[in-house]
Each structure stands twice: as C-alpha cells, then as structure tokens.
C-alpha cells in the first residue's frame, strides 16, 4: 500500500480483526508512519468496542447447558471425586461459557452488517450520481437535436486568427428558444488562462457566454442559454485569465458575424 487506504471500511474491518494476509499487513505498515490513519484506526476500534457492548445478552437453552456441563466433565482428567468435592460442572458459572461467545458472535455480526450497510449506501449514492449525470447528458442531447432541427436557428462560422489557421469552430443559436450551441477544436490555452466565448450585441458591451479550457484538440460541444433581450450581431472567442473576465481583455482567436437573415 503506497498511500492511504482507499476504503474507509478497511479501518473498521481491521479493528474487527477480519482483515488478513497482505491487506492487514499493508495497513499495519502504513499506520506506523501515518498519524492520520493511525487515528482513524483508533477511532474504528472505539466504535467496535461500543457496538460490542451494545449487543444484548442471550440466555442459552437447558439442552445447551446440559451439553456444556457434560463437555466440561469429559474434558477433566479422569479421577474419582469425593462426596465432599464440588461437582466439576459448578467450577465456573455455566452461563459464562455460553453468554460470552454468544454475545461476541452477535456483536461481530452486528458490526459486519453495519459496515456492509455503509458500503451499500455509498454504492447507492454513486449510482444515483451516475443516473443524474446521464439524465443531464440526455437532456442536453435533446436540446441540441431540437436546436439543430428548428427552422429559425442560425449558424455562425467562427473564423480563426492568423495564429491558429487550422482551428474550426461554429456557433448555432435560436433567439426564440434562447439557446446557443458552441462546437469547435482549439488547442489547450496557455497556463493559468482560459478561452471565453462572447456574444457581441447590436448595441452595448459584449456579453460572456461562458469559459472553457479544452484538454486537447478534441472537439468541444456544449449548450448555453442566451441572455434575455440580447440581439446577437457577432460572436467571438478570446484568451482570458483563468475564471474569465467581465469584459474582453485578451487577444481574439475566433470571430464570426451573424448572417443577415432579413
């Protein structure tokens, strides 16, 4: 184990004594040099102790008691007992040998179920997150198809600057639906910089339509809402400091005028 344990339940399993072999040895070696994980293991041992103490006791049946007493008698060295000696079966309270292992077994079962329940809850949360992500992607795909199929949608080609002659990018928007779609291929921006898309209105200052930082020359494709009341005259992409700016400050890498549809 080169780093911290990747599963939080490993601390509980280690405290319970369930981990064996390489997994147990890896955690023991790691906590020797990691105070944070050592503290987590100590907390896990405390939780296990509390759960063990909380397990309700169970009295054995008479048949179990008789069987236990017989086994105790049989396990003693063979010798004759005098009438003055106490029966070997009463050397210890009979319920001690039953109650302790029964309580321990119940505590272990309770802890294992508790750990398993926590793992299932985390898996359920992951599945819900994946389902929500898929629902968002499906919604965006439907919006893209709807935008591209609308007869009043307008496509704008964004022309690259001389510094990026091979870049291709387009914007499609629909004023009635108030939606905009950007697609294009740009190289990664300089360190601590980002690309920012601008809507240039017929009057007034440019309006930011979002920032993006492609990781490679793969195509970027995303949707954005159009600001209410804005009439687009052109679109542009500039290079700005990471996080974007309220108004363009950097060089333009893409620009395209909205065609006259009147």
Index terms:
262 residues; alpha+beta; 3 domains; 8-stranded antiparallel β-sheet; 42% helix
Please tell me about this protein's structure:
By secondary structure, the protein is an alpha+beta fold. The chain folds into 3 domains: about 10-55, no CATH class; about 60-135, no CATH class; about 155-255, Immunoglobulin-like (Sandwich). The chain is built from 5 helices and 8 strands. The chain has helices spanning about 10-15, 20-30, 35-55, 60-75, 95-150, and strands at about 155-160, 170-175, 180-185, 195-200, 205-210, 220-225, 230-240, 250-255. Strands 5-4-7-8-1-2-3-6 form an 8-stranded antiparallel beta sheet, with helices on one face. Helix 1 (about 10-15) packs antiparallel against helix 5. The radius of gyration is 36 Å and the shape is elongated.
Give the helix/strand layout.
Elements: H1 9-16, H2 21-31, H3 35-54, H4 62-75, H5 94-149, E1 154-160, E2 168-174, E3 179-185, E4 193-201, E5 207-212, E6 220-225, E7 232-241, E8 252-257
Antiparallel strand pairs: 1-2, 1-8, 2-3, 3-6, 4-5, 4-7, 7-8
Helix pairs in contact: 1-3, 1-5, 3-5, 4-5
- Write down the domain tally: 3
Could you report the average pLDDT, rounded to the nearest whole number? 77
First-to-last CA distance: 68 Å
Low-confidence runs (pLDDT<50, min 5 residues)?
A: 85-92
Strand content: 15-25%
Subunit arrangement of the protein = single chain
Q: Return the CATH topology of the largest domain.
A: Immunoglobulin-like
| Helical content band | 40-55%
Strand order of the largest sheet: 5-4-7-8-1-2-3-6
* Name of the CATH first level of the largest domain: Mainly Beta
Q: What does the largest sheet look like?
A: 8 strands, antiparallel
Shape: elongated
How much is the radius of gyration in Å?
A: 36 Å
Number of strands: 8
Shape-level CATH architecture of the largest domain? Sandwich
Broad structural category? alpha+beta
List the total number of helices: 5
């Amino acid at each position: 184990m080169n780093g911290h344990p990747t599963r939080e339940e490993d601390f509980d399993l280690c405290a319970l004594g369930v981990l064996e072999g390489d997994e147990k040895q890896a955690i023991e070696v790691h906590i020797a040099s990691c105070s944070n994980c050592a503290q987590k293991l100590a907390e896990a041992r405390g939780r296990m102790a509390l759960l063990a103490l909380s397990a309700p006791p169970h009295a054995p049946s008479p048949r179990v008691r008789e069987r236990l007493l017989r086994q105790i008698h049989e396990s003693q060295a063979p010798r004759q007992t005098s009438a003055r000696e106490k029966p070997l079966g009463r050397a210890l309270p009979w319920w001690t040998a039953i109650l302790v292992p029964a309580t321990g077994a119940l505590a272990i079962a309770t802890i294992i179920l508790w750990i398993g329940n926590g793992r299932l809850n985390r898996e359920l949360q992951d599945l819900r997150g994946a389902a929500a992500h898929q629902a968002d992607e499906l919604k965006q795909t439907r919006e893209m198809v709807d935008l591209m199929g609308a007869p009043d949608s307008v496509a704008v080609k964004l022309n690259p600057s001389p510094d990026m002659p091979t870049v291709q990018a387009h914007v499609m928007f629909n004023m009635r639906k108030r939606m905009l779609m950007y697609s294009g291929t740009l190289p990664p921006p300089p360190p601590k910089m980002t690309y920012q898309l601008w809507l240039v209105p017929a009057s007034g200052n440019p309006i930011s339509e979002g920032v993006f930082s492609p990781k490679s020359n793969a195509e970027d494709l995303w949707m954005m809402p159009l600001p209410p009341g804005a009439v687009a005259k052109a679109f542009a992409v500039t290079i700005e400091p990471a996080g974007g700016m309220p108004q363009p400050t950097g060089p333009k890498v893409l620009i395209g005028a909205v065609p006259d549809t009147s």
